[in-house]
Amino acid sequence: MSFRAALKTCAAEVDAHLIAQIRTHDPIPVVEAMAYAVAGGKGLRGYLVMESARIHGVDPNRALWSAAAIEAIHAYSLVHDDMPCMDDDDLRRGHPTVHIKWNETTAVLTGDALQSLGFELVTDPRCHENAQVRAELALTLARASGARGMVLGQALDIAAESAASQLTLEEITALQAGKTGALISWSAQAGAIMGQAETAPLSAYADALGLAFQIADDILDVEGDAEVAGKRLQKDADAGKATFVSLLGLEPARARAAELVDEAISALSVYGDSADELRAAARFVISRDT
Length: 290
Ligand code: GRG
Prior knowledge:
By secondary structure, the protein is mostly helical. It has 15 helices and 2 strands. Helices cover 71% and strands 1% of the residues.
């Protein structure tokens, strides 16, 4: 099976599990919006969880809970990021954003509830039989998504919009390590946490992967097709924001992303052939068109 087909199959499985959990709530508008918001993504974070779990011999039926958790947290961040007080976007994954389809109040509550659901999923005994492992999953997920991780990156990004000078390459790298990198890093390490194994090689893999992912995102913002991407593009240029592309130039940015993919792949040597899917995931992040 090609990597894209495997990613699609995995995303469908994770989505189905997540939507089944969402459907255990009463069908109020917020719950409808939660199911709407989690659907239709590439599912890369969930895939990383499932693959790192497989390498560590973790039962896939349990890993699904962690995979669904990270996709719930990721979806929350997108719902809030799309709101007028943040990035103000009308389109996400080819469909109207939650505040457009419903309203802003529903979008706030939908993001909040998806965030809570993410933590509920990793602390559910069906995710892991060992309470200490569940606590470790929740602790690391809180650090990755909160003010040491994704929220920090988002706050730095918003602050940069009104700053007197543009960010340096070093500052952008630090910002993106939080905004995009922290959830990707948790995803790659979750299987090792569930398998009570060493997380360092996956952490090194994910650091390089997360940065390559962000550079690819910046390149897509410049030369992607908005219809294929299902979202507004050219946002950074329109906002006059410094990005990897604006600071490095298009071709050097592409070369840096390819270098990072090689670095990510090298970090997987300890796992031998069992990590081939994670190697394919690394190659995918810089070849994607959405
Ligand atoms: C609101 C706390 C808070 C954080 C928002 C995720 C995020 C931080 C902002 C989204 C805007 C953005 C362009 C982020 C950088 C790259 C990124 C995370 C893109 C979306 O991820 P994909 O491509 O999306 O994996 P799909 O739709 O495939 O799940």
